[in-house]
């Protein structure tokens, strides 16, 4: 039986700084792709059962000591977000002011937490984005001896790939293993071309915007229902087989996209004749002329596809997955990412977002693949987590958002975080 509510008390706040105090302060300028991601929270949660040999005090000591050592390599994470006095664009003052770590205690055991409804669980063991601190953490103990670790990153500093690299590096430091992928924090490699040139089609996907525009754009759907789902590995494989008919193999992401798009079509208003699906596309592997595999910034774009209700309702999953495949393929080139960098440069100054995120493109659902989510690779001294997932503290979005990620079981199963409108949640369930 899940508890409907529980009390959580913050017991201590501390600042963890990089152990190497000889690193001189400097200012880190951000790239155009960082500006596109903007200042929103990227939250990761790991939940652990009670360790055999550690109590909560020793757990905290391990976390803080190893974090301090990790910050030697991720020095900007211990800095502060400030505004450039000339451009007013955000930048990182790398001055080792430190990562904030909050210690908390929940008067409930893990078995009583309702992880399905994240508003009754994850919401309480995570912290919102800070105005200045690019990385905050909360470590929460439970009455059963289990605990959780949550990381809240400022999206303007990192994307999911950079978060994964950070966690894997931290894990290697804990295990005293050599670091194989040293982070690269400098964004100069992603500077715009001179003069900036870009494909006009980018104007269909992205827009210059203001905070007022973001806050006041009417939303046709209330994307505020937050859920955590589990999908067995065998079901993921069956779905991929279903989407890969007619001799064309589809990825797992394309397969689940085809399925979700069809379900989405059943959860719209009668007046809706078309709907869109978006995909966050990671660009490090696309930039073939540059080695940016270890870049710790943002290298993301948005692919967008559109289909009619008639097409979605009458087509097999394989055909809808093919529509997804074609839309994603349009942005998986190096030229696209250079065009996007130049598009932002041309439209400066200001804020920039994909139109689908704001909700001005009609009903939409975004799928963000986290297939490299490292829940099985991260060993902080406590064994693999019982649960690992991405999460957001944002109350609602302009579009539905779904994040499939490998579960910590390592058997091909998925944990899926979703923030959707009520009718879509009901259709999925």
TrEMBL record:
<dbReference type="Pfam" id="PF02458">
    <property type="entry name" value="Transferase"/>
</dbReference>
<dbReference type="InterPro" id="IPR050317">
    <property type="entry name" value="Plant_Fungal_Acyltransferase"/>
</dbReference>
<dbReference type="GO" id="GO:0016747">
    <property type="term" value="F:acyltransferase activity, transferring groups other than amino-acyl groups"/>
</dbReference>
<protein>
    <submittedName>
        <fullName>Spermidine hydroxycinnamoyl transferase</fullName>
    </submittedName>
</protein>
<keyword id="KW-0808">Transferase</keyword>
<comment type="similarity">
    <text>Belongs to the plant acyltransferase family.</text>
</comment>
<dbReference type="InterPro" id="IPR023213">
    <property type="entry name" value="CAT-like_dom_sf"/>
</dbReference>
